[in-house]
Amino acid sequence: MCTGPELAFDEIAGAGPDAGGTSSVCTLTHAEHCRDNVNKLINEPGHVIVGAMPGASCFGPAYEYAFILDKHLRDKKIRKSVPMTFVTSEPYIGHLGLNGVGDSKGMLESELRQRDISWICNAKTVGIIDGKMEIDELDEDGNVKRHHSLSYKHAMMLPAFRGIAPLRAVEGLVNPRGFVLVDDHQRNPKYPQIYAAGVCIAIPPLSKTPVPTGVPKTGYMIESMVRAITHNIKAELMGQQPTCKATWNAICLADMGDTGAAFVAIPQIPPRNVAWFKKGKWVHLAKIGFEKYFLHKMQIGDTEPMYERFMLKYLGIDKLE
After folding, report:
1. Residue 58 appears among annotated catalytic residues
2. Among 201, 292, 284, which residue's Cα sits nearest to residue 248?
3. How many whole angstroms separate alpha carbon 200 and alpha carbon 4?
4. Catalytic residue list contains 200
5. Dist CA 251 CA 310 (whole Å)
6. Is the pTM of this model over 0.90?
7. Which candidate in 26, 34, 200, 252 is catalytic?
8. DSSP 8-state assignment for residue 238
């Protein structure tokens, strides 16, 4: 199964597009609503908040959104009228739910400083009321260090994810958050006929953090899960035991409006054989090129052309162990 997640906006009072408190880019409808909200911001500039709520596990899009919005506002010549704050449940900037990748902490802090974007880490968003975001900033022991009450004109906050309701009702299939439990071969221990991949699977947090912080399931990592599942199902159909295990490697191109950051983590979850993180204008251009390339692959139904497989193999990046 690849059901995807349920967006848990209801866990924070006033959060989410339906409640009208914050915008989101998690679905096409949400993104269109967010675009309309940004257009209103351009006509009526004010404070902007971008970030991720407690329990979130997908942080890259929040950083991308903050940097791209900063560039858009500079292009519109109104950035000087729009203070920006990055509010995240991460224990530090660049944690990304992965305990960082290479020098992601220093690099992303530098990018935020260069763009005059302030930040609050260990941020426990507790509610959105009358155009204000109420935030408890916690210390390392999980105690309230400072309370922030931030007024804003526009806020894009990524929510926590959880498993969809039908899965949460099946005992032994999921963890308390509703994510499907899987073994090394991507199948559920209690129901071995059920395989799962993608955001719906359970991955324990890498370390305890003052505010709950989940582990992201990145695109290439999910592709490796699906590759393992197909091989394992084929083995079962032939009367053999599943043996294939996904590598869970990560390759990411993050757009920053006029520059970008790229990282490779092999495997995604530390300790790693490779942890590489670089930035530059070339990443912005590579991201644009990759989006066109990816859509073309989907249109012609060739998800992994031979030259792509050869190049990744040459770089030592495999989908199966």
Report:
1. yes
2. 201
3. 5
4. no
5. 16
6. yes
7. 252
8. T
